[in-house]
Amino acid sequence: MAADLGSMISSYRSDPVELSYRIVKKYSGTVIERCEVIESFSELRKDLDYGRAGIKCGDTNYTLVYANGYMNIYLDI
Q: Could you tell me the pTM of the whole model?
């Protein structure tokens, strides 16, 4: 799965919107809406990737949190 995802990212790096829709279709995800990353943080700890990003979608802010292959999105209240 990681190799497949990496291949999609490499193929559509110049078109992030198309990449997003292809990933969502392949892995049965959901597109919230077109958003803007307003802050981000990532680090490598003991060979594991951790990070978060603040995302603004219209008037709504979300926090996207990931650890390796796991990802969650939270509504900021």
A: 0.62
